[in-house]
Give the backbone structure.
Amino acid sequence: MQISLLLMEEIAKLFAIMLMGYAVVKAGLMKSSESKSISVVMVYLVIPCVILNAFQVEYTPDVQKGLLLACVAAVLVHILFLMLTAILKNILHLDVIERATVIYSNAGILVIPLVQELLGQEYVIYSSAYIAVQLILIWTHCKNMLCEEDKLEWKKVFLNVNIISIIVGVVLFICRVQLPSGVQDVMNMMNNMIGPIGMLLAGMVIAEVPLRTVFTKKRNYVSTVLRLIIYPIFVLILMKVINTFAGINDSKQILLTVYLASVTPACATVTSMAQLYDKDAAYASSLYVLTTLLSIATMPVMVGLYEMFV
């Protein structure tokens, strides 16, 4: 249970930063809409630096095997989510916002700082696998689902700055190219920004949404329970099976990076895309807020179950 207790401590710290973002907006010092400018810094500067830095590790057969394991696990998790959602879509009458909420997690913002603190910088490279798989699906499956389109715009997928940073990072990793120490120092500094900025953004978004409405609307809890409890339990079973046949010394730790990514709250990008494509952005925002607040309790529990059963 040690990791789950550490996780609870780290989430409490991030939650405190989220309250700061909430307070800044409530005090009238900033508007919630101004968080978009901070999002640009996050998406186009901080996350690419973090991803590139994650691949600046020594190329060894063990790291190569671990990265392959993380990629396979990330793909299988998303296949599982897509299958479960296809089954539950008609049973629970899930609309497009609810389906996007249960499939896509806020891994890009939350998982990297948590992995850094819980497992160490050397494990961040494995969390990049989940982020890469999810980014591709967000700009293909999720976008088409929200737009109700059939055609995939692969150009936009591979011109996404985070996908580019992953590709560059992989190339540098495979070619065993180490960036100059000064550049790595800058990226390390950016590494330290991802958690605080991400939670400040969450706090600013939450400040705009009436919390009473978020907590009292019963329908909100359908996709919230799926995202934070039901789907993670299915992933827990999947991780157990993968770990049994993995054959890698630290497979449990590597798979934990994937599991952490899968149990985070709803993806913030879904709210942004709902606004962009004229869907119910207010509902998407409510689900983002509710899952973010409740994940403070659910994530340590889920990681505790992972420690016990995997």
DSSP finds 15 helices and no strands in the chain. The mean pLDDT is 83. The first helix runs from residue 2 to 26. The radius of gyration is 18 Å.
